[in-house]
Give the backbone structure.
Amino acid sequence: MKCLPRSKVPLANGFVLHDWHAEVLAIRSFNRFLIQECRDLVASSRPSSTFIRRRSEHEISDADHQPFAIKGDTRIHMYCSEAPCGDASMELTMAAQEDSTPWSVPLTPSDSLSAGGATESLLHGRGYFSELGAVRRKPARPDAPPTFSKSCSDKLALKQCTSILSSATSLLICPQNAYIHTLILPVSQHSAGACNRAFSPAGRMKVIDDKKWRGGYGFRPFAVRTTSREFRFSRRSAMANKKLAASNISAVWTPALQETLIGGVLQGRKQFDPRGASQICRRQMWRAAVDVVALCGLAGLEGVTVNGSYGIFKERSDFLKERRVVKSEATAEALSRWIRNCGDDRFQLKDI
């Protein structure tokens, strides 16, 4: 199980990752890299780096407040060695079963969870194959503790609207050129029908096709491409007489950061020990972004980020207003079973 059970989320206190599937780690690591790029750019006083540039005054407005942007000639490509869990992998999952007949959905779903006082039905990662195009939760195994972590297919679909930037990174970088351009899958892990349904404007995202929001946001679907090249240690690399087991160890790497994680924290630390906080956890990402804000001397941003809790920062900050609108409308219209994974937002920067 590579995500935090719902019952444990309030204990995370910003130190523990909620989800450490490979796609999620890659996106969080990329955001940490971008924050570091901004910091290095400020320290150097240069106008641009290989990937990031400073924005001119005429580019900045109330809705477009970020001081940095990803350079216009930069494209973001993402490689996944396995099909993202959830809707983009349902046909592959069905084909791997001894009996691939779709399961019947019960009239009264037994798999229900409570969120904010309301009870919602969420599908297990691999449950009820007939429900295609639905938002699904992790983990895939029905006997695992329930979570509100959405599948990687669902998270990637939403990134086509909010950009690849996290809330903290969105304080610094304009989302205009921060969208995944291409998602690359091995041929063996690609189902054209599933990917079209999960990600494209021909599938469940069609209700927001061509939609644009303020602040540089819009629905920008990535292209899905295939490669014959397999990851060296993929499940398909095993010899016929050997069975592979997934490792509980995760690797985080950027040019400036290398970490080994187990259970959403640094290897060797207990799960809720503050000393086990990864550089890509909520607290550290928020702290890193605020440090860059301070270096830039952006007084307006400073007041928003250092006062109050992480939840206030995300839900009330005027600087994240446009992002909140995008996420709210995209989940309501295209990803309608989306349930927020609440409970880990009361910590403050002064606690770090």
User: Anything to note?
Assistant: Confidence is low (pLDDT under 50) at residues 107-111, 115-119. The two ends are 28 Å apart (CA to CA). The first strand starts at residue 52 and ends at 54.
